[in-house]
Structures are given as C-alpha cells and as structure tokens.
C-alpha cells in the first residue's frame, strides 16, 4: 500500500484506488511549508478527534475534493455547520462499508475539544480493511489494553502510531502497542511539530529495531510503500 506523509499526524493511504486522508493539519505546520494543500487528493477524510492540529485543513480539502469526511458525532455536526454536506458520523464500536473497504472506529485514550474550547466528542482511532491490505491508525492515544481486541476482528499489515511522547504515546509505549496488535511495520507520526514533542529519530529507529520492529519515518511529502 502506498502511504504519503504530510507532516504531524496527516498522511494518506492509497487503497483500492481510493485516496484515504487522515487528520489534515498542514497550513499552520511550518515543517510542511512545501506542501501545497490544494493539490492533495482525497476521496475520504478521517478525523480522529477535534483538536486543531488534526482538523485545521479539513474544511478546505473537503470542499476542494468533495471527499466524504468521517468523524465522531460531534465532529459530524461541526462539519455540517461548516457547509460540508458529504459528512458521515462514526463513533467507537461502529463499522461502515464503503467502496474502498470497511472502517471500524475504536477507542483512543485522549481528550478532544474544538478550537473554541467546546466539547469535541470522544477521541478515536480507525481500523481499515481493504482489498490491498489492512491497517490501524490509533489517533492520538496512550497505550491501552483495548488495542488487543483489534485482533479479534482484523489481521493487520501495518499500524500508524504517535511516537512524540508528552501528549501521546512515546517510543516505549508505541513498541508495546505494536506487540499488542501484532504488527512489525509501523509508521510513526505526531512528533517534531512542536517543541514539546521533539524526538530523537535515530533513537526511535534503534529502539524499534531492538524490538524486531520496522519503524518508518518518511520525510514530509515522501511516499513509501508498506
């Protein structure tokens, strides 16, 4: 599967010829200054929670592309108020099928609020099953034993975990999360964007290697295949 990294926790996956975009935060990310947000392709956009560093560019990209946008019920209502009619609600425990495959919403241990401080619904992650492969994006989360239940429903090919520590999992917890969901290919996200989540890249790569895991840290704008 082809994955393009757009910085912070924003990435896209090409699955069953559909562009699946996650947590778009680009235009205010100085590290992603070379990304033209208006050139990003999206057939579906998934929002893990309401914090600004995960939803900032969703309105712009959704209106540019006509993508279907999925998020919890509070985010869904927020999208409708923004004039994004092609929105679809999904809460933890829920599953829907689309033309790319299926998406199941799962719990993430993290707060969620909109930029004005209003309640943003429960934070979540997504498990996607497609003809090209299956993967888990945990969203912003701490390590939780709930992750092991994913294996009851889906065999994963790779996972996407935050590894910047401080506000989410760090390196150690992401390694344990990888073991819980039984993946050995991990895309690391949610690091370096702000001063308090700066990360030692080589240390991260070394620690994952010691655990017999393959950590991928593509440059912003790069496309890799997993």
TrEMBL record:
The source's domain of life comes to Bacteria
Keywords, sorted A to Z: Hydrolase
Pfam families listed in its UniProt record: Lactamase_B_2 (PF12706)
Keyword Zinc-finger in the entry? The reply is no
Q: Residues in domain Metallo-beta-lactamase?
A: 7-190
- Tell whether Hydrolase is among the UniProt keywords: yes
Q: Which GO terms describe its molecular function?
A: hydrolase activity
Per its record, how is this protein called by name? Metal-dependent hydrolase
């Amino acid at each position: 599967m082809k994955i393009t990294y757009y910085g912070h926790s924003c990435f896209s996956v090409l699955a069953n010829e559909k562009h699946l975009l996650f947590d778009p935060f680009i235009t205010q990310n100085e590290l992603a200054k070379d990304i033209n947000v208006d050139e990003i392709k999206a057939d579906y956009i998934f929002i893990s929670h309401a914090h600004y560093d995960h939803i900032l560019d969703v309105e712009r990209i959704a209106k540019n592309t006509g993508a279907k946008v999925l998020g919890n019920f509070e985010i869904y209502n927020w999208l409708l108020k923004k004039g994004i009619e092609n929105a679809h609600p999904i809460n933890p425990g829920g599953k829907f099928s689309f033309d790319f495959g299926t998406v199941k919403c799962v719990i993430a241990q993290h707060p969620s609020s909109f930029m004005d401080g209003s309640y943003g619904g429960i934070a979540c992650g997504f498990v996607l099953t497609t003809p090209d492969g299956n993967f888990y994006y945990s969203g912003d989360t701490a390590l939780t034993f709930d992750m092991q239940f994913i294996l009851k429903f889906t065999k994963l090919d790779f996972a996407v975990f935050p590894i910047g520590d401080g506000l989410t999992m760090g390196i150690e917890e992401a390694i344990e999360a990888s073991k819980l969901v039984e993946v050995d290919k991990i895309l690391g996200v949610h690091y370096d964007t702000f001063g308090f989540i700066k990360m030692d890249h080589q240390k991260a790569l070394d620690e994952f290697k010691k655990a017999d895991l393959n950590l991928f840290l593509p440059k912003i704008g790069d496309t890799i295949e997993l």
